[in-house]
Amino acid sequence: MAAGASGMLSGWGHATTGQLLTRLLATRNPDGGYGLGRPYDAFADGTVNGADTTYTVTLAGHVGPTLLAAYRGGAPAVARSDVQAVINLLMAAPRITVPRGQCVAYSLESADAPPAGGMGWVHNVNSGVAWFLHECNAAGFGATGMQRLITDIGIAEMLAYVESGQWWPYLDNGPLAAQDPDHNSYMAEAMYRLAYWVGREVAYSQMVYPTPAGVPGNSNQQDPIVHTRLTSLPGGPGSWSRTAPGVTLWAELGDAWKTEQDTYLAGLTGDRAAQFAYYAARNVLATD
């Protein structure tokens, strides 16, 4: 995300951007994917993934968008094959049986793709995969079955949507509870592309209220990232300012959270600072 922020603000040919992209590509796992670089028990069930495990959210949410933008922007460090490799891994990822549609597993490890009825259907990860593949397809990339997977993920997540509160569960594992606002906003921006009106409804709720409607108190320390993330949504039906031509509704709503954003930024270090920089850079491009 630091590489993505640098590319958006300084240009994809800038020396610092190139250095960050080279460092990013150097973190590839033996299978060509990306992950945490440390052991991790994804579902706290005793099955610990190795440090070289490739995670679908890392591919589609953390690394893929930057590589795609870098390739489209002409970054010397990123080849078309680097983007295609991410697509191919997502298409080859294990699938989880869901009532309708399809779901991509949390990682490429078989232990993270349990049989029907088990844990593993992580909603924000699944929708994020479809959104990234959607963007890749729009940029001229493809893979056998890509459009079908995008369609089926959209179906699965539409059926999982809880319209009474504008939220999705984090995980299908028994009694369903709303996921935290951070993850819900990632789903909102994904569904904004996959099922526009549903995504718009959720995004509006999260941009207008401190926490999503219907999810009182369900929050975490990263709640402010909701507003950083959603301010850069593109315009669309019902998503333009009524008073300022050419200004999106989301940019307009984002103005109300400036103090919150300054306070959040003042306390950030490490990878969360890079995440904030990435979304803030998107906002610069969206509002210039």
Gyration radius, in Å: 18 Å
How many individual β-strands? 0
Order of helices and strands: HHHHHHHHHHHH
Terminal residue distance: 20 Å
Choose one word for the global shape.
globular
Q: Give unreliable regions as ranges.
A: 212-217
Given the structure, what is the number of helices? 12
Strand content: under 5%
| Secondary-structure-derived class | mainly alpha
- The average pLDDT score comes to 92
Major sheet size, sense and barrel closure: none
Descriptive report:
By secondary structure, the protein is an all-alpha fold. The protein has a domain at 2-160. It is 51% helix and 0% strand. Helix 1 packs parallel to helix 12, helix 5 (123-138) packs antiparallel against helix 6 (146-160) and helix 5 packs parallel to helix 7 (181-194). The radius of gyration is 18 Å and the shape is globular. It starts with a helix and ends with a helix. The model is unreliable at 212-217 (pLDDT under 50).
In a few lines, what is going on in this structure?
The protein has 288 residues and is an all-alpha fold.
Give the helix/strand layout.
Elements: H1 2-10, H2 15-25, H3 56-72, H4 80-92, H5 123-138, H6 146-160, H7 181-194, H8 196-208, H9 225-230, H10 249-254, H11 258-266, H12 271-287
Helix pairs in contact: 1-2, 1-12, 3-4, 3-5, 5-6, 5-7, 7-8
